[in-house]
Protein backbone atom coordinates (compact mmCIF):
# COMPACT_ATOMS: atom_id res chain seq x y z
CA UNK A 1 0.00 0.00 0.00
CA UNK A 2 1.41 3.36 -1.07
CA UNK A 3 0.61 6.39 1.10
CA UNK A 4 0.82 9.99 -0.07
CA UNK A 5 -0.01 12.81 2.29
CA UNK A 6 0.19 16.54 2.83
CA UNK A 7 -0.73 18.98 5.57
CA UNK A 8 -1.31 22.71 5.78
CA UNK A 9 -2.44 25.26 8.35
CA UNK A 10 -3.55 28.86 7.87
CA UNK A 11 -4.27 31.51 10.49
CA UNK A 12 -7.18 32.89 8.46
CA UNK A 13 -8.31 36.48 8.04
CA UNK A 14 -9.75 37.27 11.48
CA UNK A 15 -7.46 35.68 14.09
CA UNK A 16 -4.15 37.10 15.30
CA UNK A 17 -2.64 33.73 16.24
CA UNK A 18 -2.90 30.12 15.15
CA UNK A 19 -3.99 27.68 17.88
CA UNK A 20 -4.09 24.65 15.56
CA UNK A 21 -1.36 22.00 15.39
CA UNK A 22 -0.90 19.01 13.12
CA UNK A 23 1.48 16.15 12.46
CA UNK A 24 2.16 13.97 9.41
CA UNK A 25 4.22 10.76 9.61
CA UNK A 26 4.03 8.53 6.54
CA UNK A 27 6.52 6.05 7.99
CA UNK A 28 4.02 5.12 10.70
CA UNK A 29 0.88 6.07 8.83
CA UNK A 30 0.01 8.39 11.72
CA UNK A 31 -1.77 11.72 11.14
CA UNK A 32 -3.09 14.15 13.77
CA UNK A 33 -4.92 17.49 13.85
CA UNK A 34 -5.67 19.45 17.03
CA UNK A 35 -7.62 22.69 17.41
CA UNK A 36 -6.70 24.48 20.64
CA UNK A 37 -8.79 26.85 22.73
CA UNK A 38 -8.26 29.05 25.73
CA UNK A 39 -6.72 32.30 24.54
CA UNK A 40 -3.45 33.98 25.52
CA UNK A 41 -1.53 31.25 23.63
CA UNK A 42 -2.95 28.57 25.95
CA UNK A 43 -4.88 26.90 23.14
CA UNK A 44 -1.76 26.81 21.00
CA UNK A 45 0.12 25.09 23.83
CA UNK A 46 -2.68 22.58 24.46
CA UNK A 47 -2.88 21.54 20.81
CA UNK A 48 0.89 21.31 20.39
CA UNK A 49 1.38 19.24 23.55
CA UNK A 50 -1.44 16.87 22.63
CA UNK A 51 -0.06 16.18 19.16
CA UNK A 52 3.41 15.64 20.63
CA UNK A 53 2.24 13.21 23.32
CA UNK A 54 0.08 11.12 21.00
CA UNK A 55 2.99 10.81 18.56
CA UNK A 56 5.55 9.93 21.20
CA UNK A 57 3.39 7.46 23.08
CA UNK A 58 2.38 5.59 19.92
CA UNK A 59 6.00 5.28 18.78
CA UNK A 60 7.20 4.15 22.18
CA UNK A 61 4.53 1.48 22.59
CA UNK A 62 5.08 0.28 19.03
CA UNK A 63 8.86 0.07 19.50
CA UNK A 64 8.42 -1.84 22.76
CA UNK A 65 5.73 -4.09 21.26
CA UNK A 66 3.75 -3.17 24.35
CA UNK A 67 0.75 -5.17 25.46
CA UNK A 68 -2.58 -3.36 25.39
CA UNK A 69 -2.63 -3.94 29.16
CA UNK A 70 0.35 -1.58 29.48
CA UNK A 71 -1.20 1.49 27.89
CA UNK A 72 -2.30 4.49 29.92
CA UNK A 73 -5.77 3.99 31.39
CA UNK A 74 -5.99 0.29 30.59
CA UNK A 75 -7.17 -1.53 27.47
CA UNK A 76 -10.44 -1.55 25.58
CA UNK A 77 -10.95 -5.20 24.68
CA UNK A 78 -13.03 -4.28 21.63
CA UNK A 79 -10.03 -2.59 19.98
CA UNK A 80 -6.89 -3.87 18.27
CA UNK A 81 -3.47 -3.40 19.85
CA UNK A 82 -2.85 -0.33 17.67
CA UNK A 83 -6.30 1.03 18.50
CA UNK A 84 -5.45 0.76 22.18
CA UNK A 85 -2.17 2.61 21.57
CA UNK A 86 -4.15 5.51 20.08
CA UNK A 87 -6.67 5.34 22.93
CA UNK A 88 -3.90 5.45 25.54
CA UNK A 89 -2.12 8.34 23.82
CA UNK A 90 -5.27 10.46 23.73
CA UNK A 91 -6.00 9.71 27.39
CA UNK A 92 -2.44 10.62 28.36
CA UNK A 93 -2.54 13.87 26.38
CA UNK A 94 -5.79 14.79 28.09
CA UNK A 95 -4.34 14.19 31.56
CA UNK A 96 -1.24 16.30 30.85
CA UNK A 97 -3.26 19.24 29.49
CA UNK A 98 -5.68 18.95 32.42
CA UNK A 99 -2.88 19.00 35.02
CA UNK A 100 -1.14 21.95 33.32
CA UNK A 101 -4.39 23.93 33.36
CA UNK A 102 -4.76 23.24 37.10
CA UNK A 103 -1.18 24.13 38.01
CA UNK A 104 -0.64 27.33 36.01
CA UNK A 105 -2.99 30.29 36.17
CA UNK A 106 -2.22 31.41 32.62
CA UNK A 107 -3.35 28.02 31.31
CA UNK A 108 -6.69 27.88 33.13
CA UNK A 109 -9.47 26.92 30.77
CA UNK A 110 -7.19 25.71 28.02
CA UNK A 111 -8.10 22.67 26.00
CA UNK A 112 -8.06 21.22 22.52
CA UNK A 113 -9.90 18.99 20.14
CA UNK A 114 -7.96 16.15 18.56
CA UNK A 115 -8.51 13.86 15.62
CA UNK A 116 -6.20 10.96 14.74
CA UNK A 117 -5.91 8.75 11.67
CA UNK A 118 -3.72 5.63 11.70
CA UNK A 119 -3.19 3.72 8.45
CA UNK A 120 -1.77 0.18 8.59
CA UNK A 121 -1.74 -2.51 5.87
CA UNK A 122 -4.54 -4.36 7.63
CA UNK A 123 -6.59 -1.65 9.33
CA UNK A 124 -7.67 1.99 9.32
CA UNK A 125 -8.11 3.51 12.79
CA UNK A 126 -9.88 6.84 13.30
CA UNK A 127 -10.26 8.56 16.68
CA UNK A 128 -11.50 11.94 17.84
CA UNK A 129 -12.47 14.14 20.75
CA UNK A 130 -14.30 17.39 20.01
CA UNK A 131 -15.50 18.65 16.63
CA UNK A 132 -12.46 18.26 14.40
CA UNK A 133 -13.27 15.68 11.74
CA UNK A 134 -12.05 12.83 9.55
CA UNK A 135 -13.67 12.31 6.16
CA UNK A 136 -13.14 9.24 3.99
CA UNK A 137 -13.86 9.08 0.26
CA UNK A 138 -14.40 5.50 -0.90
CA UNK A 139 -15.88 4.55 -4.28
CA UNK A 140 -17.12 8.09 -4.80
CA UNK A 141 -19.00 8.20 -1.48
CA UNK A 142 -18.02 10.36 1.48
CA UNK A 143 -18.25 9.14 5.07
CA UNK A 144 -17.38 10.88 8.32
CA UNK A 145 -15.16 8.68 10.51
CA UNK A 146 -15.58 10.89 13.58
CA UNK A 147 -18.34 12.08 15.86
CA UNK A 148 -18.86 15.73 16.77
CA UNK A 149 -18.91 16.23 20.54
CA UNK A 150 -21.10 19.34 20.57
CA UNK A 151 -24.42 20.32 22.10
CA UNK A 152 -26.10 20.63 18.71
CA UNK A 153 -24.79 17.26 17.51
CA UNK A 154 -26.36 15.64 20.57
CA UNK A 155 -29.65 17.42 19.87
CA UNK A 156 -29.60 16.24 16.25
CA UNK A 157 -28.96 12.67 17.42
CA UNK A 158 -31.96 12.92 19.77
CA UNK A 159 -34.19 14.26 16.99
CA UNK A 160 -34.54 17.63 18.72
CA UNK A 161 -32.85 19.61 15.94
CA UNK A 162 -32.36 19.20 12.20
CA UNK A 163 -28.94 19.17 10.54
CA UNK A 164 -29.80 22.48 8.87
CA UNK A 165 -30.81 24.10 12.15
CA UNK A 166 -27.64 22.78 13.77
CA UNK A 167 -25.44 24.35 11.09
CA UNK A 168 -27.04 27.75 11.78
CA UNK A 169 -27.13 27.51 15.57
CA UNK A 170 -25.14 29.93 17.73
CA UNK A 171 -24.32 26.92 19.94
CA UNK A 172 -22.72 24.80 17.23
CA UNK A 173 -19.20 25.30 18.61
CA UNK A 174 -20.03 24.53 22.24
CA UNK A 175 -18.18 21.30 22.96
CA UNK A 176 -19.40 18.55 25.26
CA UNK A 177 -16.02 16.82 25.22
CA UNK A 178 -12.44 18.00 24.67
CA UNK A 179 -8.93 17.35 25.93
CA UNK A 180 -8.12 19.21 29.13
CA UNK A 181 -11.51 20.05 30.61
CA UNK A 182 -11.75 16.98 32.85
CA UNK A 183 -9.42 14.47 34.47
CA UNK A 184 -10.35 11.70 32.03
CA UNK A 185 -11.79 11.49 28.54
CA UNK A 186 -12.96 8.74 26.23
CA UNK A 187 -12.53 9.31 22.48
CA UNK A 188 -14.63 7.93 19.68
CA UNK A 189 -12.61 5.20 17.93
CA UNK A 190 -13.46 3.41 14.69
CA UNK A 191 -11.58 0.50 13.12
CA UNK A 192 -12.30 -0.45 9.50
CA UNK A 193 -10.66 -2.46 6.74
CA UNK A 194 -8.67 -0.44 4.19
CA UNK A 195 -9.67 -0.33 0.54
CA UNK A 196 -7.41 0.13 -2.46
CA UNK A 197 -7.84 3.83 -3.18
CA UNK A 198 -9.25 5.41 -0.05
CA UNK A 199 -8.77 9.14 0.41
CA UNK A 200 -8.93 10.86 3.80
CA UNK A 201 -9.22 14.45 4.97
CA UNK A 202 -8.51 15.37 8.60
CA UNK A 203 -9.50 18.92 9.47
CA UNK A 204 -10.32 21.53 12.08
CA UNK A 205 -13.67 23.31 12.02
CA UNK A 206 -12.18 26.22 10.12
CA UNK A 207 -12.87 24.10 7.03
CA UNK A 208 -16.23 22.56 7.93
CA UNK A 209 -17.71 25.91 9.01
CA UNK A 210 -17.34 27.15 5.44
CA UNK A 211 -17.75 24.02 3.29
CA UNK A 212 -20.49 21.41 3.44
CA UNK A 213 -19.95 17.67 3.07
CA UNK A 214 -20.86 17.56 -0.62
CA UNK A 215 -18.43 20.38 -1.46
CA UNK A 216 -15.74 18.54 0.48
CA UNK A 217 -16.52 15.30 -1.36
CA UNK A 218 -16.29 16.95 -4.77
CA UNK A 219 -12.99 18.62 -3.97
CA UNK A 220 -11.45 15.37 -2.66
CA UNK A 221 -12.60 13.49 -5.75
CA UNK A 222 -11.35 16.13 -8.20
CA UNK A 223 -7.90 16.71 -6.68
CA UNK A 224 -4.84 15.16 -8.31
CA UNK A 225 -2.79 14.70 -5.13
CA UNK A 226 -2.87 15.51 -1.38
CA UNK A 227 -0.90 18.76 -1.65
CA UNK A 228 -3.16 20.06 -4.40
CA UNK A 229 -6.20 19.16 -2.27
CA UNK A 230 -4.91 20.98 0.82
CA UNK A 231 -4.14 24.12 -1.16
CA UNK A 232 -7.54 24.08 -2.86
CA UNK A 233 -9.28 23.83 0.50
CA UNK A 234 -7.32 26.76 1.94
CA UNK A 235 -7.95 28.85 -1.16
CA UNK A 236 -11.70 28.23 -0.86
CA UNK A 237 -11.77 29.03 2.86
CA UNK A 238 -9.88 32.29 2.33
CA UNK A 239 -12.25 33.25 -0.48
CA UNK A 240 -15.16 32.75 1.95
CA UNK A 241 -13.78 34.92 4.74
CA UNK A 242 -11.66 32.50 6.81
CA UNK A 243 -12.90 33.67 10.22
CA UNK A 244 -10.99 30.91 12.06
CA UNK A 245 -7.71 29.02 11.88
CA UNK A 246 -7.94 26.21 9.33
CA UNK A 247 -5.84 23.04 9.34
CA UNK A 248 -6.09 20.20 6.85
CA UNK A 249 -4.21 16.92 6.44
CA UNK A 250 -5.00 14.83 3.37
CA UNK A 251 -3.98 11.20 2.89
CA UNK A 252 -4.31 9.24 -0.37
CA UNK A 253 -3.88 5.45 -0.48
CA UNK A 254 -2.93 3.36 -3.50
CA UNK A 255 -3.18 -0.43 -3.38
CA UNK A 256 -0.11 -1.42 -5.43
CA UNK A 257 0.30 -4.83 -3.86
CA UNK A 258 -0.87 -6.54 -0.72
CA UNK A 259 2.10 -7.26 1.57
CA UNK A 260 2.10 -9.86 4.28
CA UNK A 261 0.20 -8.65 7.29
CA UNK A 262 2.34 -6.16 9.14
CA UNK A 263 5.68 -7.45 7.81
CA UNK A 264 6.64 -4.77 5.30
CA UNK A 265 5.45 -1.93 7.49
CA UNK A 266 7.63 -3.28 10.31
CA UNK A 267 10.70 -3.61 8.06
CA UNK A 268 10.16 -0.10 6.69
CA UNK A 269 9.92 1.25 10.24
CA UNK A 270 13.12 -0.45 11.37
CA UNK A 271 15.21 0.66 8.38
CA UNK A 272 13.94 4.20 7.97
CA UNK A 273 15.42 7.29 9.59
CA UNK A 274 12.24 8.42 11.29
CA UNK A 275 11.50 12.01 12.07
CA UNK A 276 8.33 13.70 13.23
CA UNK A 277 7.51 17.32 12.68
CA UNK A 278 4.68 19.06 14.48
CA UNK A 279 3.37 22.06 12.58
CA UNK A 280 1.94 24.89 14.62
CA UNK A 281 1.36 28.58 14.15
CA UNK A 282 3.09 28.50 10.79
CA UNK A 283 6.29 26.96 12.18
CA UNK A 284 7.79 23.49 11.97
CA UNK A 285 9.10 22.03 15.22
CA UNK A 286 11.31 18.94 15.10
CA UNK A 287 10.38 16.70 18.01
CA UNK A 288 12.95 13.97 17.54
CA UNK A 289 14.94 12.13 14.88
Compile the SSE list and pairings.
Blueprint: E1 2-10, E2 20-25, E3 30-37, H1 42-63, H2 81-103, E4 111-112, E5 114-119, E6 124-129, E7 133-138, E8 141-144, H3 151-157, H4 163-168, E9 188-192, E10 199-203, H5 205-208, H6 213-222, H7 226-239, E11 246-254, H8 263-271, E12 276-280, E13 283-288
Antiparallel strand pairs: 1-11, 2-3, 2-12, 3-4, 3-5, 5-6, 6-9, 7-8, 7-10, 10-11, 12-13
Helix pairs in contact: 1-2
User: Helix proportion of residues, in percent?
Assistant: 25-40%
CATH class: Alpha Beta
Radius of gyration: 18 Å
Q: Domains counted in the coordinates: how many?
A: 1
Number of helices: 8
Which key terms come to mind for this protein?
alpha+beta, Phosphatase 2c, domain 1, eight-stranded antiparallel sheet, five-stranded antiparallel sheet, 8 helices, globular, disordered C terminus
Describe the structure.
The chain has 289 residues and is of the alpha+beta class. It contains eight helices and 13 strands. The strands form two sheets. Strands 2, 3, 4, 5, 6, 9, 12 and 13 form an eight-stranded antiparallel beta sheet that branches. β2 (20-25) and β3 form a beta hairpin. The chain is globular, with a radius of gyration of 18 Å. The relative contact order is 0.22. The model is unreliable at 263-276 and 285-289 (pLDDT under 50).
Q: What's this entry about, in short?
A:
This protein has helices at 42-63, 81-103, 151-157, 163-168, 205-208, 213-222, 226-239, 263-271, and strands at 2-10, 20-25, 30-37, 111-112, 114-119, 124-129, 133-138, 141-144, 188-192, 199-203, 246-254, 276-280, 283-288. The longest helix is centred in the N-terminal third of the chain and has 23 residues, at 81-103. Strands 2, 3, 4, 5, 6, 9, 12 and 13 form an 8-stranded antiparallel sheet that branches.
